[in-house]
Design brief:
Layout (H helix, E strand, L loop, with lengths): L1 H14 L20 H6 L12 H5 L6 E10 L4 H11 L4 H14 L10 E4 L4 H7 L3 H13 L2 E2 L4 E3 L11 H7 L4 E3 L2 H4 L3 E9 L3 H10 L6 E10 L1
Keywords: Signal
Protein name: ComF family protein
InterPro entries: ComF/GntX_DNA_util-trans (IPR051910), PRTase-like (IPR029057), PRTase_dom (IPR000836)
Amino acid sequence: MGLIRTYLSDFISLIFPQLCAACHASLVLGEDTICTDCLYNLPYTNFHQQPDNIVAQQFWGKLPVEAAYALYLFNKGGKVQQMMHHFKYDGMHRIGNIMGKIAGSQLAENETFKTVDYIIPVPLHKKRLKERGYNQSACFAEGLAEKLNAKVELDNLIRTVATKTQTHKSRFARFENMQEVFAIANPGRLANKHILLVDDIVTTGSTLEACGIELLKVPGLKLSIATIAYAV
């Protein structure tokens, strides 16, 4: 029976080949969404081993973060960009969970990230969430939570305003665009907790900064940040 299933799977793959989300090569039996070659050779940052990494530096003097991290470097035209496009716009939410587990395994080696209580994804406005069908940052958060033994908090940080796209805006314009966009629904639940705020890609950090400003209004809250990619 097992051999028949293998033949059937191979036959279906010939007609409807499953392609790697990063390089578009055909996946072989046992590969899931991303091929083995890409899983090993995508541009990992190893920022979990570098406390003063470039993501952390973006928040110096702006947010008192415990630690900051990105899993990959994002270059235009590169494999990470291809993967993130499929993740964000083509309904391939499985990518977020896979990336979350990889990132979570790295962060579980870091003493600061080990103390995270709740993981909070940057929220989408309810209108955007309905259009897309899922929050890509929440998919990433779920994978992280599995490896960090932390809980995902989905409905506490909320987006009250549907902002326009941040593409092509300057850093200052992006920050202005995010003013008074977020709110905390239940601050008491987050008091004296270590929160890991997560997003898919960090560029200028304006969205994460705006979220962080609201979160840090909660008494005793400690804040760390993690993203799938850092835009070079």
